[in-house]
Amino acid sequence: MSIISLQRRLVDAREATGMSQSEVARKLHLNNSIISRIESGDRKLGATELAKLADLYAVSVDYLLGRSNQKNPHQNPASSDTTDLSGFLADTGSAHLTFKGKMLSPEQTMKLRIALTQIFWDELALPQR
User: Fold this and answer.
1) pLDDT in tens, 66-95
2) What pLDDT is stored for residue 75 in this prediction?
3) Rounded to an integer, what distance in angstroms lies between the CA atom of residue 119 and that of residue 42?
4) Model pLDDT, residue 20
5) Is the Cβ–Cβ distance between 21 and 14 less than 8 Å?
6) Is 64 exposed, middle or buried (0-12, 13-18, 19+ CB in 10 A)?
7) Are 13 and 23 contacting, i.e. CB atoms less than 8 angstroms apart?
8) N or C: which end of the chain has fewer CB within 10 A?
9) Mean pLDDT, residues 18-42 taken together
10) Whole-number Å distance between alpha carbons of 71 and 55
11) Closest Cα partner for 65 from 78, 81, 49, 76?
């Protein structure tokens, strides 16, 4: 992997988070100029710093190094943005759901379960094969 590619990945990952170089430096307890120097290639990046940046940007070290184009290998790209509602309907415990950042009350959660059960009644009523 060339240094230019690592630099580009670092900049892209930072920009994807919407953070400035100063914000990244503050979160990692570094001097403001260090992130700029790392991104420009004027300062080498140690393994610990690389791991901290990957964690902060929620990407893998392999992604930053260009060894993978998958930003986070722990997420299945096909399902990372999906939730199977059958699990929610089968769960008898209290689900922790929010709407516009506010936690749903137990009554709201129950109403949601009822509404989803009605929507998916045919699929739920079919015998399992």
Assistant:
1) 888 878 766 554 544 556 777 777 765 656
2) 58
3) 58
4) 94
5) yes
6) buried
7) no
8) C
9) 93
10) 11
11) 49
Give the Cα separation of 39 and 44 in Å (integer).
9
DSSP E strands in the chain: the ranges are 98-99, 102-103
Element containing residue 94 per DSSP (H, E): none
Beta-bridged to residue 55, according to DSSP, are: none
Look at the chain and count its residues.
129
Collapsed DSSP state (helix, strand, coil) of residue 112: helix
Query: Looking at beta carbons, which pairs linking 116-125 to residues 24 or more positions away fall under 8 Å?
Result: 116/85, 116/88, 116/89, 117/89, 120/85, 120/86, 120/89, 124/86, 124/89
pLDDT band at 13 (very low <50, low <70, confident <90, very high): very high
- Provide the residue type at 68 as one letter: S
Q: Which two tokens stand for residue 24?
A: 């990244």
Region 57-67 average pLDDT: 89
Residue with the bigger pLDDT between 81 and 27: it is 27
* pTM greater than 0.90: no
pLDDT averaged over every residue in the chain: 81
Structure tokens at 57: 């940007």
